[in-house]
Amino acid sequence: MIFGLNFTFLSKYGFYYIEGLKVTLQLAFWTLILATAVGVVMGMVRVQNYKIVSSVIDGWINFIRGVPIMVQIFIVYYGIATSLPQFWAAVVSLTVNSSVYIAEHTRAGMQAVNKGQMEAARCIGMSKLQANWYIIIPQAIKNILPSLCNEFILLIKNTSIVSVIALHELTYTSNSVRANTFLAFEPLIVTAFIYFMITYVLKRLVGILERRLHAHD
Fold first, then answer.
1. pLDDT at 27
2. Are 34 and 96 within 8 A, CB to CB?
3. Which of 3, 40, 133, 182 lies 20 to 30 angstroms, CA to CA, from 55?
4. Which residues, 6+ apart, have CB-to-CB distance to 174 below 8 Å?
């Protein structure tokens, strides 16, 4: 008993949280990889300003940013990815959401690179694609790396929303423990503490990364 709270259930149900945490971290990991790949491509296309394609991407980004993530998860799970395993349906849902924000970070990062870099690359015979790949993108990645890390932190927290499709991640696990123990509050405290520790450590690492990037500059 701590401050009148009963945490003795952890001796029996602690492994529930471990298994839920594994699913949460795997979900965040695969989503980050896929969302980064998709988002970077969308951001590059937006910067190039290909009329029709850029307009379509702009519309898609505005649509996704204007629709609640829970609604997006339901649309993907019940309508688009019905043939996928539950885990990968959740990955697709979160990828759809996260990729549009990464696209915006990528666009901003590329536009922050001095335009003279592109002009110099073109003067020495590089195509636009080569200039972007070898000159602009490496500098843009450095600009947006802290933002990508913060997006990963946000993604860790957003994984809790996929509990609505009964994926056994950390939040769903907490609800299962609550149902089994008839404790309404304590299992949520444990879940909140686990999320806090993950995000706190990640924020500290992002802070170290930002300081090193500034020192390098």
1. 95
2. no
3. 133
4. 17, 20, 187, 188, 190, 191
